[in-house]
DNA sequence: CGTGCAGTTGAGCAAATTCAACGCTTGTGG
DNA sequence: CCACAAGCGTTGAATTTGCTCAACTGCACG
């Protein structure tokens, strides 16, 4: 296919969902790189991120790791599981996570249609996110990174800079690029003043939208 | 990242779901390339494929079309929608489709937990499919096509050949490749006897699994 | 003060794209 | 019935993109 270099960013409006009822659950802390659940395990919980960042990932037969998605505060992890997890999850940075029992959730759904609607909706959002991610993977390297940064920025609306709660390796494995390419694109964007690196983990995006259109 | 050229196929066991209750709905016929629904429209139905093949797709700002997924008999189209469709759908070949009213479905779900479970499950399967598709997009061109062919073969288990109910352009837009590359890979696979083209739309896959491991 | 991890940069290379031309099939109208 | 156009598919040559391999820097932590 064509690295869709000229394609503008499509704002996906992947809003977080505000629910009107209580799902209960207990909060647990995880340190950087700590395992939350593993592929194959029985899926007992849904996990709501309170703070920090979670990555879900799988390891390919060639040993390469592939990151399915980063989950930020208010995101729900584990919707892709039916009986068992099909993917693993770890914290990319120190994180607090609310563990919600799936069984309790299902019985609550049996009594309250709002819960059904809620579950359907957040799963549909998860699905839309996956589709958006597929779309990103069709683009060229620079656009992947721009889209990624803008997606992060969407989460912290009124900030002009974003924190990257993950390493370059994580970003590479999420975007399907080599770390070298990720690094080079950052440098290139810096060169065109599209971004500026306050630190290697905090990036000012003031001029990025303009650059992404050019 | 690396086109994961050495990576073996991961059998995804994306089984179709057998439900034990009746969702009703009426069957409608669509001819090749006929529109089923468009992005932005209100999502009134879920669509169950009875025969033929449906593609869901979106058009990028650069005009290029991008196919999200092909739906074959027993697949359900439209699970990614909440209020409105976020994607368009067309028949890639003459198809029969069962239209299931979403509103009726929700009220049925309110009375029957099995329906809730069913909806959650088919949506989770849809999500797993999307993740599998993402994974395919990380691989090299030949592996994408091999995976695609094997995925089709999964649907017609006891056949040694599969029909392609879509054009090369469709395949290219689904796999994120150019049509030329798709064509070349077919030729290459033919050259190594991994496949043989009975017609350009019907392919014998007898030797493909072996080839995909090599 | 070394060791390891994260990140950056450079040179050569492999893969897939683009541009372009051409063959085959199918359907349509004279 | 034939001729021609249109769509689908294939093939070739040049180019671009991003990967691999490799070296090197800065930083944090023991």
Task: Tell me what you see in this structure.
The structure is a homodimer of 214-residue chains. The first copy, chain A, is α+β, with helices and mostly antiparallel strands and 214 residues long. Helices cover 36% and strands 26% of the residues of chain A. Chain A is built from 6 helices and 9 strands. The first copy, chain A, has helices at residues 102-111, 113-137, 141-155, 168-175, 179-191, 208-213, and strands at residues 26-30, 35-37, 45-59, 65-71, 76-77, 88-101, 161-163, 196-199, 202-204. In chain A, strands 1, 2, 3, 4, 5 and 6 form a 6-stranded antiparallel sheet that branches. Chain A has a 3-stranded antiparallel sheet with strand order 7-9-8, covered by helices on one side. In chain A, strand 8 (196-199) and strand 9 form a beta hairpin. In chain A, helix 1 crosses helix 2 and helix 4 (168-175) packs across helix 5. The radius of gyration of chain A is 18 Å and the shape is globular. The relative contact order of chain A is 0.17. The interface between A and B is large, with 49 and 49 residues. The structure holds a DNA duplex (30 and 30 nucleotides).
Q: Span from first to last CA of chain A?
A: 21 Å
Quaternary assembly: homodimer
Give the fraction of residues assigned to helices of chain A: 25-40%
Query: What is the total tally of β strands of chain A?
Result: 9
The backbone outline of chain A, from C-alpha atoms, is globular
**Into which percentage range does the β-strand content of chain A fall?**
25-35%
> What profile does the largest beta sheet of chain A have?
6 strands, antiparallel
Quickly give the structural class of chain A: alpha+beta
Residue stretches of chain A low in confidence (pLDDT < 50, at least 5 long) are: 1-12
């Amino acid at each position: 296919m064509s690295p869709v270099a000229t394609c503008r960013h499509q704002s996906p409006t992947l809003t977080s969902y505000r629910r009107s009822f209580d799902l209960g659950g207990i909060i647990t802390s995880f340190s950087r790189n700590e395992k939350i659940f593993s592929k194959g395990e029985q899926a007992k919980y849904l996990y709501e991120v309170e703070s920090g960042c979670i990555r879900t990932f799988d390891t390919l037969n060639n040993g390469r790791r592939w990151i399915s998605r980063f989950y930020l505060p208010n995101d729900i992890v584990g919707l892709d599981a039916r009986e068992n997890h099909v993917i693993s999850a770890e914290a990319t940075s120190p994180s607090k996570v609310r563990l919600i029992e799936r069984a309790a959730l299902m019985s609550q759904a049996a009594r309250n249609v709002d819960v059904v609607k809620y579950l359907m909706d957040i799963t549909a959002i998860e699905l839309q996110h996956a589709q958006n991610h597929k779309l990103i993977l069709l683009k060229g390297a620079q656009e992947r990174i721009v889209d990624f940064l803008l997606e992060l920025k969407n989460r912290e609306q009124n900030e002009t800079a974003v924190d990257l709660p993950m390493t370059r390796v994580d970003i590479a494995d999420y975007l399907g690029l080599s770390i070298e390419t990720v690094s080079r694109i950052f440098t290139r964007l810096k060169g065109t003043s599209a971004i500026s690196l306050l630190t290697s983990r905090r990036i000012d995006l003031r001029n990025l939208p303009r650059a992404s259109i050019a």
